[in-house]
Specification:
homodimer; TIM Barrel; seven-stranded parallel sheet; globular
C-alpha cells in the first residue's frame, strides 16, 4: 500500500511518517504491506528512503513486508534490508513495459528469473503481472497473452502472482473469466487480485474474483494511487472500503476496521489533499443516527 | 434519475433544463426516467415544477416516464399529467417512514392500496421499498421484515417492486440473499434494484443482484443524489458508470453510452459542482493513448 499509494504523490512524505504508517497498518492486522520500492531515487524521489524505512519499521509477527524491486540491483538492496518478499513487475503489454520499466517484457522476464535465483531462500518472490486486462496504449489484452506470461513465470518456479488491472479497465465478467481459468490451470499458485477503482468497478471486480475463490486482494489506504492515464479518477481499490465490504459480507479479514479507519482519517493531512475513500466519510454500514426529534 | 438526482440540490434547476435533460436521456435510450415528484412544493421546492415538466417533455416510444407520488393527492396530479408509471414509496423501517413521509408504514401501505386502485388502467404502479437493507435510525433490517412488506404489496396486486438500499449500507452477500429469495418467492413480480454508492459498494451490489437474475437497475446521471445521513459520500449508483460496466461485460443495455456521457459532461455546469461519476473523468475502458515518444 505505501508504495503504490505514495508513488504518485508530488511531495516527499517524511520517513518518520512512512514508518509510523507501516507500524500502524501492522497493528491494524494488514497481512502484507508493500513498504516501499527499491527503484532509482531519480525515478521515484518520494520513495528514495526505502532502505531507511525498512531499517526502522517494527516487524510484526505474521505480517509480510514486501517491496517493489525493478531489477537485480534493487534486489540486492532489498535483500540487504531483509525484505520478506520481493515484488517484481512485468507488463503483458510490450508498450507499457517499455514505458514503465524501459525494457521489453522478455528482458523483464529474464530479470525475474535472475532475481528469483538470487533471492532463493532469503526472500519470497511475487510477480505482479501488469496491464493484465487492458493497456492504455495497446488496448484490450487477451487472456491468452496473460497466460503466456504466467506460463513463463511457472517455468521459473514462481508461485506468487498478482494479476493487476493497472489502469482500472477490467470489468467483472473479464475478471471472473481470467481468475477462474488461471486458478484451474495453476492450482499450485497463489493468486492476488489488484484492482483500481478508476471507472468505479474496483469492488465489483473484487466480488467477481471472490466468486472464483481468490482470497488475496491488494488495496491502498484511502484509495490513494491513481493513474497518470486517467486524470481525475480514483486510484487503487481503497483498503478500508474493501475490508469494510468483506467484513459486512461475513468474511474474517483479520483486520481491525476501527484502527484502519483511524489511520485513513489521518491520511488527508499527510498527503495534503482529500482522498477517494468513502467509508471514512460515510461511516460503516452499521452506523446509526439519533431519531429525528418529534417522532 | 431526475427526481432522485435533483431532490438534494439546493438550487432550483430551471424547468427548461429539466425538460432538455429528460429528452436527451430518452434519446440516449434510457428505458425508464423518473422525471419528477408530485410531492408538496414546500417539501421539495426544486421539484415544484413537476406538472410543467411533464407537459413539456417529448414522449419517446418505448420509454416509461415515471414520477414519485407520495399520496392520493399526488396521484391525482400525476394522472392529470399522463404519467406512465407512479412510483410510491414505503420504508421497511417505521422510523424512516415517519421521518421521510410523516406516516407510519401501515398508513403508507393504505395509501398504496388506494393509489393502486385509483391508477387502475390509467398508469402502472411501482412501489419502492426503502431502507430494505438497513436504516440510519434502526440499523440492520432483516429479510423477513422486507418480505412482510412485499407480501402486503403482492396482496394489493402490485407487480413492480423496487428494492432500495436508501442509505448505501447494503453489501453484496446481503443483496444476493435478498434478491435470490425474493425472485423465487414472487416469480410473477418484476424487481428493480436501487443502490447508492455511499460506501463504494454500488456496482459490487449490482453484480450480486445480476447474479440472481435481476435485470432492472436504478441509476442517477453523474451519481448525483447523496443522502442526508452520509455527508461527503457519493449518491445513487452513477447511471453512465453502470451502463459502461454492463456494456463492457457484454450486456445489451439499449443505451448509447456516448450520448449518455455527453449529457453527464454537461451536468457539473447545471448543478454548479463536481459530480461523483468516474467514467466521465477517466474515459471508457477501451480508451487508448498515443505511445510515449521514443518507444
Amino acid at each position: 500500500m505505501l508504495r503504490d499509494g505514495f508513488q504518485m504523490e508530488p511531495d516527499f512524505i517524511p520517513t518518520d511518517t512512512k514508518v509510523s504508517l507501516a507500524n500502524r497498518l501492522s497493528e491494524a492486522g494488514i497481512s502484507k504491506i508493500e513498504v516501499s520500492s527499491f527503484t532509482s531515487p531519480k525515478a521515484i524521489p518520494t520513495l528514495a528512503d526505502a532502505d531507511t524505512v525498512f531499517e526502522r519499521i517494527r516487524r510484526y509477527p505474521g505480517v509480510t513486508y514486501t517491496a517493489l524491486v525493478p531489477n537485480l540491483r534493487g534486489c540486492e538492496r532489498a535483500l540487504a534490508c531483509r525484505v520478506d518478499e520481493l515484488n517484481v513487475v512485468v507488463s503483458v503489454s510490450e508498450t507499457h513495459n517499455l514505458a514503465n520499466l524501459r525494457m521489453r517484457p522478455e528482458e523483464s522476464l529474464e530479470q525475474i528469473a535472475l532475481i528469483s535465483k538470487r533471492a532463493a531462500d532469503n526472500a519470497a518472490v511475487n510477480v505482479s503481472v501488469s496491464t493484465a486486462f487492458g493497456c492504455p496504449f495497446e488496448g484490450r489484452i487477451t487472456r491468452d497473452q496473460v497466460f503466456s506470461v504466467i506460463d513463463q513465470l511457472a517455468a521459473f518456479g514462481i508461485e506468487l502472482v498478482t494479476v493487476c488491472d493497472t489502469t482500472g479497465v477490467a470489468n467483472p465478467a473479464q475478471v471472473y473469466d481470467l481468475f477462474d481459468a488461471a486458478s484451474r490451470r495453476w492450482p499450485e499458485m497463489s493468486f492476488t487480485a489488484h484492482f483500481h477503482n478508476t471507472r468505479g468497478m474496483g469492488l465489483a471486480n473484487v466480488i467477481a474474483a471472490l466468486d472464483t475463490g481468490i482470497r488475496y486482494f491488494d488495496g491502498s489506504l484511502g484509495g490513494l494511487g491513481g493513474c497518470p492515464y486517467a486524470p481525475g479518477a480514483s486510484g487503487n481499490v481503497c483498503t478500508e472500503d474493501l475490508v469494510h465490504m468483506l467484513q459486512m459480507m461475513g468474511y474474517d479479514t483479520g483486520v481491525d476496521l476501527d484502527l484502519l479507519l483511524g489511520i485513513a482519517h489521518d491520511l488527508p493531512a499527510i498527503v495534503g489533499h482529500d482522498v477517494p475513500g468513502q467509508v471514512m466519510k460515510a461511516g460503516t454500514s452499521d452506523r446509526t443516527y439519533p431519531k429525528p426529534a418529534g417522532l
